[in-house]
Write a structure and sequence with these properties.
Chains A, B: This is Homoserine dehydrogenase. 2 copies of one chain form a homodimer. The first copy, chain A, contains 14 helices and 16 strands. By secondary structure, chain A is α/β, with parallel strands linked by helices. In chain A, the strands form 2 sheets. In chain A, strands 7, 8, 9, 10, 11, 12, 13, 14, 15 and 16 form a 10-stranded mixed β-sheet that branches. Chain A has a 6-stranded parallel β-sheet with strand order 3-2-1-4-5-6, with helices on both faces. The radius of gyration of chain A is 24 Å and the shape is elongated. β12 of chain A pairs antiparallel with β12 of chain B.
């Protein structure tokens, strides 16, 4: 019996698409040895046909329309690498699934916003839908959660999942440059999404966290339930002050299940500088998984880039070539429950920075309001100031984030602060 | 259509076996949701029937003979948790595979010594043979290599894979106690294998490395090809001197493929104290994988213990329940090549300690012989000494390990050193 090759149709020939083409071309023998069948490419699709992408595409068919590519009879598996939560990416994915064809995608936005509907469509058509590359680049975290740790009740998933934000924060610290300058650098280096708010607003990382949370807890993906805070307001002064206290600031995601429901948050957080998370440099991602049997598992690797993301895509392609089948989120979509959203209730210390008006008693009023709201102050420091803008740094004793939010509303209502205070959680050790 | 439950027969009710029973009992609903079928236990087997193991076994059948258990008609999957490379573990595994039944095992010794024959038997009978729990406890490293990174040519696998050795080395440093005392402590705590040489001689970790190496490079498992050095000769002085230079000593395994062949080694190595490997405490394991597409992936977690190891066993059980099939070593056993053994050729700095006879010119003779052998000295220090035993510490510039071995033979031949010098590699940063 001759086993037929697995014929890919690849839509999207950016960095990742080119990486996938390269692996298929360079590792043909390896892929056949490992999966028991040849992996080939039938046709590709992208916005521009004539751009030189550094790989030879002459042997493949071309489709202007990814939906047509997805429906081609000679395409067994559709690889979606266009990006964008809706539009052509979603249309082509749906077309492939409706035709009963497996889909491998790196599209976190599409999964985070339409994951439930797509999983239902995939299962109704008995087609695989896999997305290892959508979360944490080359780190096989989806596989670890869905398969490796299938014997565990997962209690918590956390980590640093956006390399661009981590690059900006670590570069600010190493260069001493302010946020705006490093943002421009990152843009010039091509690190930022077309809409940079997806990165620095924490949205991209929030998409990834929502996907992991759904898998971990057997709930429907709930991106709107992620409490999001971007890194735009983290100043170079915050970074220096955090460092003086032995911390570094990371865009940290956390999904946790408690009796109250599912807590999901993605926010800049002070982590101990000498901890594995604190030592994470540049574009590296780290995911920490806690399960009732396994304890804590930590996974670290490149969060983006041609090779790592293409590696994740090909891991999924190989699983499909090997005939593995399982529901997209690890259990049937119909059994995924709607998550009860819970506010982060775990008490933690907070770092606060605010700017006081230059008037007598301002600092005392802030301290009084915080005290009356039950927020206990661990450290407080007022800095020299040139004009009507006295920076104040406060570290609180552990308190519930919701109590702190209410307290800060009270502080703003006094009228003695300029603008909104910034509040960053300090990771519980 | 009703899907039949997957009925386990578990041989071996030590820590791990009890952990597996506990997960099957406590997570019945979770396992069914995730795998699409119930996972149940038909019967168990162990040396002593009447011991109280803290779990209720009254609902299960009992077999004195694990081979009988493996052959029972009402056992669909045989879980081998007895240990030992041969004897009942191997006999029962072979019986199950010969009957076409999948086997999940945590038995690194059996896999390292008989992996090729068992894989051939499994494939001939179309039965799965899975062993995630055999390597690095709860860390899904086998799955990561075989599946997640299937699109990569793997170039290197390294790490700390024996929690007991890591416990002894970190405990020596934190307590200041000599090796012999900490060894006794570890024994009293039940951390050591029945034959402690399996742990401290590096054999257990070497078994794990040989398994990972085979998977990574598509070669037949070759435990005899692992260059082994145990931790028995690492003294508290070595630990202190390494620390003074910014290093910690870890039992580090490394498998690497080069043009010359496969290099496998497991030996105490100086690693930078502030690196992730250097910071690894107690029983934690860390595995570092390098692939041509993914770059470097680091996995960290508990390397042993009831929960973590049972978690790994259950990951394999769930894969089988889900119907995943793949060859034990990731590609058909017949395609695994015999590895060409290569000596470690990569040059690295070395830490040397030797004891000199109290005679004039002894140190000069050592230095001369090393120099004549092409070994260049970075640092050299002679310590105070009470009798005819002057400890000398030398750090070499990078050199090939084989050149150093030859040079040390020359040093011993001078007759000015007492006993054998100890040589530890310093990890290339």
């Amino acid at each position: 019996m001759t086993i037929q090759p697995l014929r890919l149709g690849i839509a999207g020939l950016g960095t990742v698409g080119v990486g996938v083409v390269r692996i298929v071309q360079e590792h043909a023998a390896l892929l056949t040895a490992r999966t028991g069948r040849a992996v080939s490419i039938t046709a590709v699709s992208a916005r521009s046909r004539n751009r030189d992408r550094g790989v030879d595409l002459s042997g493949y068919g071309w489709e202007d329309d990814p939906v047509t590519l997805a429906r081609r009879e000679d395409v067994d598996l559709f690889v979606e690498l266009m990006g964008g939560s809706d539009g052509p990416a979603k249309a082509a994915t749906e077309a492939a699934l409706a035709a009963g064809k497996p889909v491998v995608t790196a599209n976190k936005a599409m999964l985070a916003l339409h994951g439930q509907a797509l999983a239902e469509l995939a299962e109704a058509n008995d087609a695989a839908l896999r997305f290892e590359a959508a979360v944490a680049g080359g780190i096989p975290v989806v596989k670890t959660l869905v398969e490796g740790l299938a014997g565990n009740a997962i209690t918590r998933v956390s980590g640093v999942m956006n390399g661009t934000c981590n690059y900006i924060l670590t570069r600010m610290e190493s260069s001493g440059l302010p946020y705006a300058d490093v943002f421009k650098e990152a843009d010039a280096l091509g690190y930022l999404e077309a809409d940079p708010n997806l990165d620095v607003g924490g949205i991209d990382a929030g998409h990834k966290l929502a996907i992991l949370s759904a898998i971990a807890f057997g709930t429907q993906v709930d991106f709107d339930g992620v409490q999001l805070q971007g890194i735009e307001r983290v100043s170079i002064d915050d970074i220096h002050r955090a460092r003086d206290m032995g911390y570094r600031i990371k865009l940290l995601g956390e999904a946790r299940i408690t009796a109250a429901g599912v807590e999901q948050s993605m926010r800049p957080t002070l982590v101990p500088a000498d901890s594995p998370l604190g030592q994470l440099e540049g574009g590296t991602n780290m995911v920490v998984i806690e399960g009732d049997a396994v304890g804590q598992i930590v996974l670290r690797g490149a969060g983006a880039g041609e090779g790592p993301t293409a590696s994740a895509v090909m891991g999924d392609v190989c699983d499909i070539a090997r005939g593995f089948t399982l529901p997209p989120f690890g259990q049937p979509a119909a059994t995924l429950t709607k998550p009860v959203r819970a506010n982060a209730a775990t008490e933690c210390a907070h770092y606060l920075r605010m700017s006081l008006r230059d008037e007598p008693g301002a600092l005392a009023r802030v301290a009084t309001v915080l005290g009356q709201s039950g927020i206990s102050i661990d450290r407080m420091r007022q800095y020299d100031h040139p004009g009507d803008d006295a920076p104040v740094l406060i570290v609180t004793h552990p308190c519930a984030p919701s109590d702190l939010s209410a307290a800060l509303q009270g502080v703003v209502a006094t009228g003695v602060v300029n603008g909104d205070p910034i509040a960053l959680q300090i990771q519980i050790p």
